[in-house]
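Journal club side-thread
Mid-discussion, someone asked how the predicted structure for our own chain would compare to the paper's figures. Pasting it here so we can look after the session.
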Amino acid sequence: MDEAKLEDKLRELVEEFGGMVDPQYRKLAMLAKQTQKNQKKLQKSVDNLQESLDYLRICIKYQLFDLEATRRENKYLKKLLEGNSS
């Protein structure tokens, strides 16, 4: 079941149990609301984690770019030194 369907079902349960007087139904309604809140928190955490992973990927790509540039520069400088010592 996808996220939107789950959220709709939870909302339906909350509405259905909201009108009941029986304490068991109130408890179920409270649990349904809590589940909905927890699901939103979890989704927010997953979104934050995804953003962090995206940032980490960018940082790694930059580090690889910088490493390759440094290697090219070192190779060029070694050639210059070899040319001067000859």
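Post-session note: Helices lie at 3-18, 23-85.
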